[in-house]
């Protein structure tokens, strides 16, 4: 009979992991990282399995993490490092959405700055990093997610004519008003009708277990935003802007609105930041540094700067998200970095839901079963 060695939490490994991911040294930012190891075998440099549980997803950095850990701690040299993700549930002040751990609003003050393109690619980037992700298109008046996902003719199935199943697209599940009614009908909805439609879309969709639900908001700071922030358990928001003053001025209103509604803004995604010609030279058609100034003012980070790129536009127009269809493209790599930062901030920096006990995967009271991931 073989008995499994008892593995103990190993503080030194946890600290090294936290420093690799540049986490703040405050204990609350580290405590969700759990490293289990048999300390005695570590001392002797024996081959063993280290079990690492992270509160965020980081597929693209696992090789670098393993290299960093063995460099910092040569005793890990012969060890196999097994990583799993245990993404926590963050603050839920209002009715939770069954099966959904974290809701991330993607917002912009001004229209046309690339909010939907960012929402869609952020969703796929989080999925590629190892999370279970859904996207809901809250842009009731101009839903563009179905086009960007390449399935504008799709229609969610229903078992009971009351609830619907989201549509699975390349591993992300989605729902949009665009799948349910034609665009002319939705465009004439006003106030209560639009907010009711949005709530139905969110609460009457049977989401599978999701680490993150991305909500692509309409531009501006109107009724829909207020409803969403007050009646849907938003974990955090990401604000998209171009660098030009007219866009950052509107983005500012959005950041201020989330501040008043107590929704943490994780940072700004600067879209159409620069244009890089084939010769390698960069130019700045929409001005330079606008988001950095805004970020400084609100003491939030710029999560990433995306180029004005034909490839981003073509993939969006063709319904083939660039992160999935051209993963090696510079823009895809930037989306992946943004996704990682979003995931790290939610997992290691935001307060977790009070009902979530430490290292608990889910919460039955929230309709989230306790299951083991990966
Ligand atoms: N970085 C980029 N480079 C080139 N084109 C882009 C980029 N980002 C987005 N686009 C294109 O710009 C157009 C507007 O983008 P998108 O629909 O994402 O903006 P939006 O802010 O969601 O707009 P709205 O909310 O007003 O509908 C789309 O055709 C999209 O493909």
TrEMBL record:
Keywords, comma-separated and alphabetical: ATP-binding, Hydrolase, Iron, Iron-sulfur, Metal-binding, Nucleotide-binding
Any GO MF annotation of the entry: ATP hydrolysis activity
A Gene Ontology cellular-component term: cytosol
Pfam families (UniProt xref): ParA
Gene Ontology BP terms: iron-sulfur cluster assembly
Keyword flag Transcription regulation: no
CDD domains: Mrp_NBP35 (cd02037)
Positions that bind ATP: 109-116
NCBIfam families linked: PRK11670.1 (NF008669)
Subunit structure: Homodimer.
Family: Belongs to the Mrp/NBP35 ATP-binding proteins family.
UniProt function note: Binds and transfers iron-sulfur (Fe-S) clusters to target apoproteins. Can hydrolyze ATP.
Protein's recorded name: Iron-sulfur cluster carrier protein
Species whose genome carries this gene: Brumicola blandensis
Gene designation: apbC
